Every structure is written in C-alpha cells, then in structure tokens.
Amino acid sequence: MARFIFITGGVVSSLGKGLMAASLAALLQARGYRVRIRKFDPYLNVDPGTMSPYQHGEVYVTDDGAETDLDLGHYERFTGVAARQSDNVTSGRIYQQIITKERRGDYLGATVQVVPHVTDAIKAFARAETDDLDFVLCEIGGTVGDIESLPFIEAIRQLRNEEGRENTLSVHVTLVPYIAAAGELKTKPTQHSVRELASLGVQPDILLCRCEKPLPEGERAKIAQFCNVRKEAVIPALDADSIYSVPVQYHGEGLDSEVLRAFGIHDAPDPDLSAWYDIMDRKQHPEGEVTIGVVGKYVSLPDAYKSLNEALVHGGMANRVKVNIRWLDAEMFERGDDLANELEPMHGILVPGGFGERGSEGKIESVRFARERNVPFFGICLGMQMACIEGARNTSGIEQASSTEFGPTSEPVVGLITEWMSAEGLQQRGANTDMGGTMRLGAYEAKLSPNSHVAAIYGANEISERHRHRYEVNGAYRDSLEKGGLVFSGMSPDGMLPEIVERPDHPWFIGVQFHPELKSKPFDPHPLFRGFIEAAVKQSRLV
Ligand code: GLN
C-alpha cells in the first residue's frame, strides 16, 4: 500500500516547494522506492492551459495530453516518472466534475457541500492509481492560510485519519528570513505558519526551513520546541548553487532519513546518488561554454520557458559545456534594433513555442539570419512554423507567405487544423470552439525519413513527442518549400502533418512541430538538445 507525503508551504509563496517535492521523491527513488508526485492547485481555472505565461509560467504538457502546472516538469525531470493528467488537479476541475454530477442528478437530492463532496473528490484524486507505488507525494499549491487552499488542508486532515498516521506524513516548507539590521535569522514567521496549519488539524512532522544563512543550532531547537517537532526534523534548506544540487544537499541535511524514520522504516537501503553526483560534476566543472540566443516573446519571465531553459542546460551537461542563454525579445528586431549586432555573438539561435502575431516578423528575421550565416538553428513549434514561413518567402519565392494565426492570408503556409488522427481516432475542432484543451495535445508519433539529419540524431526512424498547438504547416506547400531546400524529414504516421523540417545544406537547421524540451532530463538529455549544443560548440570554435 502506498504511503502519502503531503507538502504544504507557509509564510510566503515561491519557496520552491515543487523542487523540494521533486528532490525528496528523487531521494526515495534512489533508495529503490517507487514514487509518484501530484500537484493540487487551489485556483479555479480547470487547468493552466488558458492562463497567460506571465501569470503562471510555462504550461507543462503530459503524454496523455494534459495541460498542467510547470512543477510537473520538475517532477518528471527529477524522477524520470512520466507525469499524467491524474497527477495535477485544480479546484476548478474538481468543481467542474462535481457540478456536472449534480446537474445529472447523481447526488439523488442531497445538498452538495465542500465537506464532504469537495473533500471526497480531493481524496479520490490523491488515492487514484496508487496501487503500484511505495510513496505518493502530494504538493498543495499556494500558502497555508489562503482561503482557496482550505478544502485541500481539510482533505489532508481526513486522509491522515483514514490512512493512519503511520502511513501519512506532513512536510511543511517555510521561510526563516535573515534580518540584516538585527544580524539574525527570525523563527517567528515559521512558528505562526505552523500554528495556522495545526489549527486546521494538520500537525507537520517535518519542517523544511528555507534560509539564506546557516541555521544556528539554537534557532533550530527553538523552532522544534515551538512547532512541536523533533529537532532533527527541522531541516535547514540553504539556497543552492543549482537546482540539480538540491537532492544531494537535502540528503546531507538528513531529509530522506527523517522521512523514513517518521514512517517507522528502519531497514531502507542507502540511496545510490551516483547519477546526481555525475550531474553536479558536469554542471560545476564545464570544459567550455556556448551562448544561445532564444528569440521569443515572454523573455522577461524565464519561467515561461522553464523546460526549454532546463533542456538547454541538459544539452550543455551532455557536452560538458556551460550554456549561457541570452533571452532576446523578438519585438526589438521589429523596432529597428540591429539584429546582426545582437545575433552575431550567438553560437546557436533558437526560436521557441509561442502564440499570436506579436514579434513574429522579428522571429522570421532571426531564422533568416541563422540560415544565411550558417549559425545552428533550432525552431520549436511556433519556431518551426516561422522557419517554414521564412523559407517560403526567401528561398521559395512565396512573398506573401504567412500563418492564418496572424490574420487572413493569401498564402497560408501555416494554417488552422480542424481534423487530425490521434490514438483515440479522428479529432475534429471548429474555428470557434472553446480555447481550453482544444489543441493537438500530448504524445503523437512521427515517422522520420531514413537518411535525414534527425533520424541520425535520434538514432531511430519512429519517435513519439509531445504537442501543444492549434496550427500546422500546410502540406500543400511541401513541394515548393523542398525546392527551396527546406526538407520535410518527419511526418505524422498517416503522412498528413509535417512534424519536422531541416536544411541539408546547413550545418544544423532543424524545426520541430512538437516540444522536445518537455521530455529532456538531466541524466538523459534529449537528443535534439544534445545535438544542438554540440553544433553550437563547433560554431564557437569558428567565431
Ligand atoms: N501558436 C502556434 C499554434 O497554435 C504554435 C504553438 C506553440 O508554439 N506551442 O500552432
């Protein structure tokens, strides 16, 4: 039977609960346990799919087509366990489910209430598909004390009773701020936060205290005494040099040992952390560096490109180089800023996914620069679409080439898809359907041309990658684009949808309709990112 670990946050948001959950799961996994991590988001959106990246950061897409919180990306990168729709639930999704049942009359006349109906649904989400697991880690979004998270805390309280204290654990992540004027770390906010949580019926077993200075023993003892936990269960969590050092750091502070002790497990094997030491070594001791220019729209908020950022780092680890990322706002190239000046120092140019017309001409010009100057180019989703429009205009003579996403056009090189095949059969959408969850989402297979660059990079002729887009490159333009040197080297299995384009006459020019960054892991860097950074290393020797 699976044991449950509930992770809540207190004092302030952005304490890195997601990273903490991912690190603890990785440590338990390193001891041979089977783990899964779930995220409970208290907001009312059904999923983050319709939220702006500025509000919420990246939308992480799973194989089964769920649009989820970016913390699921951390979970998957740290544990290698593929996330699923059932690993992320929001208040909105729970209410939607309950209201649908209520309208159907499933409650047989009963009054539908937060307790028990909402809390029962939360508990059902926590328990679903857990038979083959040793530990289920449930991270509750938000901060204890928020109105929105109350039903989740109540559900934890009930679960702890129902599953038994010996099978459940509460980990509370707090902040111990340093007050420079006093020269001291302050424990009071932690005491208040634990009191708040305890007043809701959940006494934490372990406190993970984020602090920017080492926590003196005296303060540790004070927190333990006031918060009713063992002193050893007050785990200091100092800021780390890299997220990839966090599991080893927490292990050093005794986090996983305390968790096992709290469950009464005394015979756990020692963790095998060799993969993590190898990752840290690659990160801390690079043998060179490259600079990659990412030409996008949401560049002022790097969380909007979280997985992309990490996949580039993984590509660097694979090649033992440090990757410097220059986030470039595509719009600045439209304002007349000197594109060549900005892009010349780059060893690789990447145009990432995105939505809407804003900045598209700057992206297209960046593709042109990369093509003409033989700089390694990687286009992802919208980036591939921009590469096709650039090729259509500048190497195939279709001057009016554009995407219907940007308005009516006489040359729809990129167009809206209304029908496509998925594993579940034919999917159909109208131009006016809801925005939420209506894209081509999740894992789809692609067939690669045997002698293509991508087939060599993957070492395979068939691949599966995750998608999230509404528009597609229009197959009707294939011949014209290929005459201009842009080869369609990956197609959907039915041959209808272009999945990959490349330029054989260029050192490294690849556009993909999917999001390879979502599947890259530090201990298993994605082949396209490994290859792109390798090409950037070669480029760095030329310039
Ligand atoms: N906006 C484009 C589409 O919907 C690309 C989406 C993306 O880059 N994720 O097709």
TrEMBL record:
> Quick one: which pathway?
Pyrimidine metabolism; CTP biosynthesis via de novo pathway; CTP from UDP: step 2/2
Query: Where is the organism placed in the taxonomic lineage, from the top?
Result: Bacteria, Pseudomonadati, Pseudomonadota, Alphaproteobacteria, Sphingomonadales
The transmembrane segments are none
Which residues are listed for L-glutamine binding in this entry? Answer: Y54, G354, L382, G383, M384, Q385, E405, R470
Which residues does the annotation say bind Mg(2+)?
D71, E139
What start-end ranges are recorded for coiled-coil regions in this protein?
none
Question: Any idea which positions bind ATP?
Answer: S14, L15, G16, K17, G18, L19, D71, A240
Record-stated family: Belongs to the CTP synthase family.
* Regulation of catalytic or functional activity: Allosterically activated by GTP, when glutamine is the substrate; GTP has no effect on the reaction when ammonia is the substrate. The allosteric effector GTP functions by stabilizing the protein conformation that binds the tetrahedral intermediate(s) formed during glutamine hydrolysis. Inhibited by the product CTP, via allosteric rather than competitive inhibition.
Protein name according to UniProt = CTP synthase
Task: Write the gene name.
Answer: pyrG
